[in-house]
Amino acid sequence: MTGSLFAVSDIHVSYAENRRVVDGLRPETDDDWLIVAGDVGEIFADIERALALLRARFSTVIWAPGNHELWTHPSDPVQSRGEQRYQALVRMCRDNGVLTPEDEYPVWRGIGGPVTVAPLFLLYDYSFRAPGTATKEESLRKAYDAGVVCTDEMLLHPDPFPDRESWCWARIAETEMRLTAIDPVLPTVLVTHWPLVRQPTEVMWHPEFAQWCGTDRTAGWHLRHRAAVAVYGHLHIPRTTYYDGVRFEEVSLGYPREWSKRGVPPAPMRRLFEAPR
Ligand SMILES: [Fe+2]
Ligand SMILES: [Fe+2]
Predict the structure, then answer these.
(1) pLDDT level of residue 1 (50, 70, 90 thresholds)
(2) Taking the model in full, what pTM does it have?
(3) What is the Å distance from ligand 2's center to 25 Cα?
(4) How far is 110 from 179, CA to CA, in rounded Å?
(5) Distance (Å) from CA 183 to ligand 1 centroid
């Protein structure tokens, strides 16, 4: 039982200040693993460079996509969209020895183990509606009126699905089958970019933004799928909370303008389990 399981997200390597932080991420032992819960960056080659760098240091790196990886950014030479882009990211990860939601879920046997580590790609479906709204259309209108619109609306294409919620629901159906099939004896570490439950979004500065942050359909997953810890990012509000007695870890680094205000140099890698004393 040696080695620690670490997690980080939202390293956003398009920022030079963040690249310097990422350059400082190193394992403490040869047995440490690193979970990267999405928003590595948006340019395909940048994402690959960052994941390859981390994989050269950590014996195992486990990635789940964030919305930024799924953007088709006008300045990215890789212009694939939607599902095709996701599959290209998965192939790139496999070429670099990085585990993805499409691989067999690994079992962590170091400190805190054994636990099944399940990186999940689930997206969102606008069910975390803006306050006072009852439909997706109303909720979106409220966000546009408030000037709080996620760039996903312009850059995250759902092809070949008609919309992002259809893609989300397909991912949920597929993922639920895989989670149901894993060894029921082991607890899990569920890794998503978007939180599995709505509560973490309640502290956001702009409540209209919650509709791009998850789906009501995963509300009970941390219980049903035996999560010892649920890891997520996306909100750029790093903290630890408990829902139904299950620990949730928001492990984001965030943008330099966010972390620089905290006044201490960022140390974004979160150790998920402490060694027993
Ligand atoms: Fe992010
Ligand atoms: Fe995100």
Answers:
(1) low
(2) 0.98
(3) 20
(4) 22
(5) 32
CA distance 61 to 220: 27
Ligand 2 mean position to 2 CA, how many Å?
32
Q: Ligand 2 centre and the CA of 72: distance in Å?
A: 14
pLDDT band at 54 (very low <50, low <70, confident <90, very high): very high
CB 54 within 8 Å of CB 61: yes
Ligand sitting nearest the alpha carbon of 12: 1
Output the DSSP codes for 117-171.
EEE------S-SPPTT--SHHHHHHHHHHHT---THHHH---TTSSSHHHHHHHH
Write the pLDDT tens digit of every residue in 159-208: 999 999 999 999 999 999 999 999 999 999 999 999 999 999 999 999 99
Counting ligands in written order, the one closest to the CA of 8 is 1
Question: What's the gap in Å between 77 CA and the centre of ligand 2?
Answer: 21
CA of 252, nearest ligand number:
1
What pLDDT shows up at residue 86?
98
**Centroid of ligand 2 to alpha carbon of 155 (angstroms):** 13
Phi then psi dihedrals of residue 179, to 5 deg: -65, -35
